[in-house]
Design brief:
By secondary structure, the chain is an alpha+beta fold. The protein has 2 domains: 79 residues; 139 residues, Sandwich (Jelly Rolls), CATH 2.60.120. Helix 1 runs antiparallel to helix 3.
């Protein structure tokens, strides 16, 4: 009987510790979402990364494909903003990766891979080519794009598919250099953060109760009350 009780107590403690781990994770994610919404959001509602310089001697810089699943419902979809700052006319565009690959085929360009934002680090994979792709803004396949000097930005409503971001000189010439930051506006992010924080707090309370009862103190109090009765 004692062995069964000990096993039950150990199970409560171990289970409580696992539940506590998940609750701390939920609290962390929820707290981060609330903090980002309160401190990192600009007047237009976007939470943005820091600005980083991207440069290449080639005619274009293109990101690896970013896949967005079709299972995301429309009401959960947010917007992306890309802001570029440059001293000469620069183009920034978003398009399906297949279209980007076809457009840049035979052109010298660099694939931006292994991108880390904090701390910033990017690896460029060069692709050789001699073809002049022409002015990127003349192409019709871009889902969203912007061209300009100084600071200019594009916004894009997120859609399913595999996408690539391209930075080029406006005339398609070699030697691309621009400072770029990315932002996202997700209307439900704050409420999701609050919900996760509340859920985490409730689950943490459950974990504390499980550990308390598994330690024997909760059961000891119950037994003491029964003895007095």
């Amino acid at each position: 009987m004692q062995t069964t009780t000990n096993k039950h107590s150990t199970g409560l403690i171990v289970g409580g510790a696992i539940v506590a781990l998940f609750s701390v994770l939920a609290l962390g994610i929820g707290g981060t979402a609330i903090w980002a919404d309160a401190t990192q959001r600009d007047d237009n509602g976007y939470v943005s990364t820091n600005t980083h310089r991207y440069s290449s001697a080639t005619r274009a810089i293109a990101t690896d494909g970013v896949t967005i699943g079709s299972e995301v419902p429309d009401w959960l979809v947010g917007k992306v903003r890309l802001e570029a700052t440059s001293s000469k006319p620069t183009f920034v565009g978003i398009a399906r990766k297949s279209e980007v690959d076809a457009y840049l085929r035979g052109t010298s360009y660099a694939s931006a891979t292994k991108l880390d934002l904090d701390p910033f680090k990017v690896t460029y994979v060069p692709h050789a080519g001699t073809r002049n792709p022409g002015r990127p803004a003349d192409q019709s396949f871009w889902a969203s794009s912007t061209t300009g000097t100084g600071a200019h930005a594009l916004t894009w409503k997120i859609k399913s598919g595999e996408w690539s971001i391209v930075v080029m000189n406006a005339d398609g010439s070699p030697g691309v250099s621009a400072e770029v930051n990315a932002g996202a506006k997700i209307p439900w992010a704050l409420w999701a953060g609050i919900g996760l924080a509340v859920f985490g707090a409730l689950v943490l309370g459950l974990a504390a109760l499980m550990i308390y009862r598994g330690s024997g103190r909760g059961g000891a109090q119950v037994q003491a009350a029964a003895s007095v009765a």
